[in-house]
Structures are given as structure tokens and as C-alpha cells.
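Data availability (excerpt). The following record was deposited with the supplementary files.
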Amino acid sequence: MKKIKSGKIRRKRFLISALLLSSIAAVSLAAVGVIYAVVIVRDLPSPDQFETRQVSQSTKLYDRTGEVVLYEIHGEEKRTIIPFGEIPETLKEATIATEDDDFYNRPAFDWRGILRALWVDIKNLSFSQGGSTITQQLAKNVFLSSEKTITRKLKELVLAIQMESRYSKDEILNLYLNQIPYGSNAYGVEAASQTFFSKSANDIDLAESALLAGLTKAPSYYSPWGSHLDEVLARKNGVLNRMAELGKITEKQRDEAKKEKIKFAPPSLGSIKAPHFSLMVKEYLVNKYGEDIVMNGGLKVITTLDWPMQEIGEKVVEEGASRNELLYGGKNASLVAQDPKTGQILALVGSKDYFDIANGGNFNVAVQGLRQPGSALKPFAYMTAFEKGYPPQTILFDVPTEFLPNDPKCPPIPDYNEMKDDECFHPQDFDPFLGPVSMEQSLAQSINISAVKTLYLVGIKDFLANVHKFGITTLNDVWRYGLSLVLGGGEVKLIDLVNVYSTLSQDGVRHDQTSILEVLDNKGNVLESYHDKAEKVIDQQYPRMVNKILSDSGLRANLFQNSLGLTVFPGYDVALKTGTTNDYRDAWAMGYTPSLTVGVWAGNNNNAPMQKKGTSILAAVPIWSAFLRETIKNYSSEPFNSPNPIEVVSKPMLNGQYIISIPINGIPTPQIHSILYYVDKKNPLGPPPQNPADDSQFANWEAGIFNFLSASLHK
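Predicted structure:
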């Protein structure tokens, strides 16, 4: 009995102690919280002081020498305050719809929005979500930085509460619309309207209102003068959809506003050099450090740009695109030059003329353009083949071939005059079919049929694995692509292709691309600096085999014919691969030395085709050649590394032998077959397939060869 009683007493004492400790802890935490809040609030500015600002300092972008100023990014505020009554209702409603759809009914902050944002941050282990009301955004933009910290968020909440105690909702919305940044140094709706539309805010319509309302989320990224115009317009349409959902406009008004073609004022960036490159760097800085730091923080940014090389690039692109427009109807071109040993971008010309808005000049084709590469990816199909054991002397037949098997609409022997390309797949070469050709010859002369056969032999999956390792960031949906991929059946970026060929030039060592050498804050502290990040992505033997082929001017002579002189630079090893899409929408020239990689694209920004003669050799190679001829003189002669001696393979086709004598009734009889007769594509160096006909392509490849031989005998 006593034991039971004493146990109860001990439990009671324990509970009392626990309660006392919990109370002390709670009081302590509360005290700490109060002290913390007092410290935070103590130094907050008064909401009455809206014109008080910290001294802003401009961010300057320099070339790689640190001496040439490319672009001065500053927060000098272009602002004209206008009365609330002169701001269109459409703009007020558009802003509320996209930023704070219950603005007039909720207090200074939205607890649900904050909790929702906090939950996302916890799940993602980051502090990136906002959940801010218009009042909170006003407080942040006027008095605080964009840093994503709990302290800043608490300050924002306190200031928002103070504002709502002093000002009405209309007054707060008026302050907001006259204060917030819209990009390009335009602060407030009047400056934004004048900047982007060349008219007063009270004259803008519904579509223009929705577009302005959409800019405030990320003014630099969503700039109508930047390279994300499609996304700008998509965001505008999103604002219109939200307005319709809230009943602020009718569906008819929404649909009409979506169809409206907005006319933008020409860009005014002040003094800027290499605009596409400079704005690309600015976008990177904003994404990493925030809009406020970049606009007002006084950063010093040393870029990788070689200014004299950039000037040459701009000159040859302008001259080449002008010539192409006259000859082939191709109005635009783009160029990227890179140091393959470091990944540093030395020159970047995004289009013929950034300020030519009518022809989409502000669009950065090099970075943002997704274009079909034509034959520009062929080298990587052959490199993958070499990696799997196929020697360069491997024989493939360049003969008319249908690659869609077992389809009655697509007979094995294609009729190029009657059959539609979209029904079957039987590519054609620019020159007459050559019959038996080596992989080496096929690559050097960019023969289509043998390239498709090579891709089939190596497999699309392994081919894509290699191009991704080399630097391609697109072509991610393997299931989307067929054998046409090696002829341009996908979309890539010029800047990626330059990185891919740079990796090729370095024997399979990829260096991460960069446009930044150093970023300093306004006190000279280093925020980031260049460090080479290199990775070996493949055995050096196989890129060296490709480099040997692509740098052999004798091998490519038949392809270039009268233009061969454009590709030869006496005393230098220069490799080159071209690419042209079937309808002449894209022309490519990808050339490189061990010390410099240069890529050129030519065509039209609106994807309109060039005239039939607008091939890569005529539209892109002259631009590439003119640039390299001016810049290569600054580099010492450096040869490509030679591959190791290639072992002789005794297997037919792999050893360059395609006529095989087989005893029939004791008599040696010559026979000719496709490579699928002798080689199991899953194990090319292993035993021949027991039943070649099991391969879905076998019948068509054989039929193509027999038809070609038969036609040759009857000539």
C-alpha cells in the first residue's frame, strides 16, 4: 500500500517538475521571441518615408581583360507618379488578379498563403516561396532587400501591418503601382507604359495591362526586349485567364485580348556592347543573386568575352546574313566561339542585329533557339560505332533504302518521285548514290543513308547517351525519336553544339561552359570565380578517330568541291562538320581546332525556309570561315592527337571487304550482302548472326543492295 502511495507521489512530483520546466522553457522562448522581434522592429524605417532610399550602385559587366565595359546595369529609376484615377481599371484588376486576388478583403498578410509557402519550403528544403500580399510586396520593394531569410520576412510583415494601419487599400495599391519595378529601369506603371509601348498608362488597353501585370514577377526574365518573348506572351494570357475566372472580364474580352498583336517600342538599353551575351550574363546574375542586388548592388563582373573576337563575330554575322538574305532569303545568323580547353565563351552573337525587332533580332538564337541540327550530330553516331568495335573502314552501302520495314505502303525499293516523305522513311543524298562506302568516307562526305544505317547499328539510346555526355542538354525524350534523329529529327541549341564539339576537340574531356571569370561585390569581396570543371566522358581513342576524319581536307573534298578553300587553313589542323535540314530552314557549320571551337547557324528566326541553294556550305560555312580566318592567326599551330593504330579485323565488312567468295558446289562464287548478314549489331566483333533475316531491317537493306547492283550492271 505504501509502495503504491509513494509511486503516486513520485509521479505527481515528476509531472509538477515537468510542467515547471515546460513553463520556464515556454517563457524563455517567448522572451527570446520578444527580444528578437524588438531587435527586428527597432531599426525598421517608418512607412511614411517612401522616398527614402539607400544609395544605389550600378553593376558593371566587363570583358575578360577587365578594361572594356560591356554593360552598366543600374537601378536609376525612371518613374513618373500618376494619380490613382489615371491608372486604367484593367491594369488595377490585372495586377490584383495575378498578385493578390483578395487584396481588398484580406488584412496586410495572408496566413494561408504564408503557411502554404512555408510548407513548400520545408518539402523542398529551401526558402524560395513568397506567399506575399500586395502590401507585403510594397514594403519589400521600398524598404527591404530581396534576400530570402526569415528575418527579412518578419520585417516585411511588420512593415505591412504598419502600412495598412496608415493607408487605405486604394492608397496602398496606388503606391504599389507607382513604385514597383517593371524592368529596364522602369519603375511604376507610367514609366513602364512609356518604356514598352511609347504611350501613357491611361491609354493602354486590356492586353497591354495584362502584359504589364505579368512582368512584375521577374522583370528581367519577362522583359519584352529579352529572349523570352513567347513566355512573356504566355504569362500575359495567364493573367487574362485569371481575370476571367474572377469575373473581372468576360470570356469574349479575354479571347479578343489574347488575339491582339501587341506593338512594342524599340529597345532602349543605353550603352551596351555584345547585347545578347551581356543580357545572358545579366539573366544569370539575377537568377543567382536577385534583381535588387544586380540593379543596385554595385557588382563588378569580369566575363569571359574576348572583345576583339566579339567584334569580328558581329561583323561576319552581319555581312553573312545580309548576303544570305539577298541570295537565299535567310535573314539571320548566329555565332558562338569557345575555348575548348576551359569551356569559356569567347564570343556570342545571338542574331544579326539585336535592335532589329521586326525580324526578331532581340531573340538570342544561340542560347534560346531550338533548331534541327541537320547532319551536325552525325559524328557522334560514328563515334559511338567506333566505341562499339566498328572500325572506320567498315563498309556500308549507300543505296536507295526504305527504313520503315514491313509496311505495304513503303516497299523496300523506294520510289522517290511518287512516295510522300511523311508516309515512309527513305532519305536521299544530295549526290548520286555511291554504293559501297566506308564509315570514314561516309562521315567525311556526310552521306545520309550510311549515317542512318550507323545509327541503327549503334542504337538510338546509346547514341543519345553519348551526345548528352558531350554537352547536349535537349533531346531528352528517347521515345520521341526514330532513325531520322541522325539527320536532324530533333532540336538542339547552338551553344550546346559548340560545347559538344569542344569536348570532341579535347579527346572526350568536357569542360563546363561558363561566361563568368569573377564576380566582386561593391567592397571588392569575391562572390564567385572561375574554376575549371573537367570530366572525361569517353575513352580518348574514339574522339581522336572522329577528329582525324573531320580534319582531313582530302576526305571532305568531294563534299565541298569548289568551296573547299573556305575550309583549309594552311599550317593548322581544322576539323569541320556541316548540317542542313531537308527544307533548308537551318544551315550549320561546326568547326574546331584543339584551341578554338566555332559554331555558326544561318536561317530565319521565324523558321521560314531558305531558298533551295541555302545549304550549310553556301549559307553557314562562309560566315564560319571568315571568322576563323581572322581569329586563328592569334593561336599557335597545334595538331590533333592521333588515334592509336587500329587493329585489323578479319570479319567481312568490318575490314573493308564487301565481295566475299563462298564455295558453291566447289566453285568460289562472289557474293555481296549488307553488313547485317555478317554482323550481329548487339555484338559486332562476335560471331555472325545465325539467322540474319530475324533482323527487321535485313530484308530492306538486302533488297536495296541487289537493286543497286542490278541497275549498275544494266548501265
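Summary of structural features: The two ends are 120 Å apart (CA to CA).
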